[in-house]
Design brief:
Elements: H1 3-7, E1 9-11, H2 16-45, H3 50-69, H4 77-96, E2 101-103, E3 106-112, E4 115-117, H5 119-138, H6 145-164, H7 169-186, H8 190-209, H9 212-222, H10 233-245, H11 270-303, H12 307-331, H13 349-367, E5 368-370
Helix pairs in contact: 2-3, 2-11, 2-13, 3-13, 4-5, 4-6, 5-6, 5-7, 5-12, 5-13, 6-7, 7-12, 10-11, 11-12, 11-13, 12-13
C-alpha cells in the first residue's frame, strides 16, 4: 500500500443501518413465509411449521455467515476469484447436463444428502467477484475492446448460456444486467456497450421464440386473463392478491390466495401475499427498506478504499436492487414470469444464505473506506482510485 493511499483511508465502524435493515427484512420474511405456507405445509407435510422451521434455520445460518463475512478482509477474495468462478461454473454444468434435481421442469438444484444447493446463486456472487477483480486490475485498459471489454462479456455469456440450459432465464438476465452495469461504472466505451445490447437483443428474441414454454409465458404476460386457467393462472391469482389487499390489506394471516389458489405463495410470489395481507402500505414500507439497503450499498461503493471494493459494492447493490424489481415486476404482471426470489423474504436456503453473505462483504468494505473520498469520477468514467490490485 502506498503512503498516499494509506493516508486516505481509515478504519470505521461497520454500516449498522445496512445490517439492521437486512436483519429486519429477514425477520419479516420468516413471519410472511409462515403466513403464506402454514396451510399448505400442514396438508403436504403434516406440520404447519415445516417451512417456518426450515426458513428460521436458514436465517440463523445466513446471519452467522453475514457476521463472519463482515470480519473477513474483502481483499481475500482476490485470491479466491477463479476458484469461486470454477466452482460456480462446475455446478451449473452438472445441472445443465441433467445431473441436478429437476423440479417444475428445470434442473437447478444439486442434492448433497438432505441439503439442496442452487449453483445459480453461487454464480451471481462469483461473477461479481470476477468482474470486480478483473476491472480493478485492468484500470484504464477497460476502455479497450480486446482486453477490457471482450473477456468480461465472454465470461458473462458463458454463465448465461449455462443458465439457459437449466433453464433459468431470470438469473441469466440478472447476470447479464449486472455485467452491463459494472462495465458502465468501470468506464467501458459506450459504443461497445450499445453494440453488445444490439447483439444481445436478437439472441434474446431467439431464445424466447425458440422455446415453447417461454412463448407461453410471454402470452400469459401479455394477456393473463385470456389464459386464466392455463399458463396465466399464477399471474392472475397474484394480481387478485394485490387487488384484494387495497390500501391497508386484509390483515396478517387473513389472506385467502395462499389457500391453494396461488402456487409458490411462500416462494417466488410471496410479495403477492404481502400485498394482500398488508396492502399497499405494507409493500411501500418493504420497498422503502430495500431502497435504504441499495442506497447504503452504493454509498459504500462511493467511499470504498480502492477500485476493487467499489466494484464489489456496486455489483452486490445492483444485484439486490434488480432482483427486487424483477420479482415485484413479475408478481404485479409488469414482467413475464422469471422464477426469481424476493431477497431476504422469500423461502429458500441457497438464496437467503448467499445474499446474506454478500451483504457481509458489503459491511466489511464499509469498515475500511476513504476518509476523504475523491469525487473526481462519475458513473461511466471509472473510479480514479489506487486499486492496489496487481497483475
Amino acid at each position: 500500500m502506498s503512503e498516499a493511499r494509506a493516508t486516505s483511508q481509515g478504519v470505521h465502524e461497520p454500516d449498522r443501518l445496512l445490517a439492521a435493515c437486512v436483519v429486519a427484512l429477514v425477520g419479516f420474511g420468516i413471519v410472511m413465509v409462515y403466513s403464506a405456507s402454514a396451510v399448505f405445509a400442514a396438508k403436504e407435510f403434516g406440520a404447519s411449521t415445516y417451512f417456518l422451521a426450515r426458513q428460521s434455520a436458514f436465517a440463523v445460518f445466513g446471519i452467522v455467515a453475514m457476521a463472519a463475512a463482515s470480519r473477513i478482509d474483502y481483499h481475500l477474495y482476490l485470491k479466491l476469484t477463479y476458484p469461486m468462478l470454477f466452482v460456480a461454473a462446475g455446478g451449473l454444468v452438472l445441472c445443465a447436463t441433467g445431473l441436478g434435481t429437476r423440479v417444475g421442469g428445470a434442473s437447478r438444484w444439486l442434492r448433497l444428502g438432505p441439503i439442496g444447493i442452487q449453483p445459480s446463486e453461487i454464480a451471481k456472487l462469483a461473477v461479481i467477484m470476477y468482474l470486480s477483480y478483473s476491472l480493478a486490475k485492468k484500470a484504464e485498459k477497460v476502455k479497450t475492446f480486446t482486453v477490457g471489454f471482450l473477456p468480461h462479456v465472454l465470461c458473462a455469456a458463458l454463465f448465461v448460456a449455462l443458465l439457459l440450459l437449466q433453464p433459468d432465464f431470470g438469473t441469466a438476465i440478472v447476470i447479464a444486467l449486472t455485467t452491463f452495469t459494472l462495465l458502465f461504472v468501470a468506464g467501458a466505451r459506450m459504443g461497445y456497450l450499445v453494440g453488445i445490447v444490439l447483439v444481445a437483443l436478437p439472441l434474446a428474441y431467439k431464445a424466447v421464440v425458440g422455446s415453447a414454454y417461454r412463448m407461453r409465458r410471454i402470452m400469459a404476460f401479455l394477456n393473463p386473463w385470456e389464459y386464466r386457467y392455463d399458463v396465466g393462472y399464477q399471474i392472475s391469482e397474484s394480481l387478485m392478491s394485490f387487488g384484494s389487499g387495497g390500501l391497508w390489506g386484509v390483515g396478517l394471516g387473513d389472506g385467502k390466495q395462499k389457500l391453494f389458489f396461488l402456487p409458490e405463495a411462500h416462494n417466488d410470489f410471496i410479495s403477492a401475499i404481502i400485498g394482500e395481507e398488508l396492502g399497499f402500505v405494507g409493500i411501500a414500507a418493504m420497498l422503502g427498506v430495500y431502497a435504504i439497503i441499495v442506497y447504503r450499498g452504493i454509498r459504500i461503493a462511493w467511499h470504498a478504499a480502492d477500485a476493487y471494493g467499489t466494484y464489489v459494492a456496486f455489483g452486490v447493490s445492483t444485484l439486490l436492487g434488480m432482483q427486487v424489481l424483477v420479482n415485484l415486476g413479475v408478481a404485479m404482471g409488469s414482467l413475464p414470469t422469471k422464477g426469481l426470489t424476493l431477497p431476504f423474504v422469500s423461502y429458500g436456503g441457497s438464496s437467503l444464505v448467499l445474499m446474506l453473505y454478500a451483504v457481509g462483504i458489503l459491511i466489511n468494505i464499509s469498515r475500511t473506506r476513504r476518509t476523504a473520498p475523491t469525487y473526481g469520477w462519475s458513473l461511466g468514467s471509472g473510479p480514479n482510485l489506487d486499486d492496489g490490485v496487481t497483475t
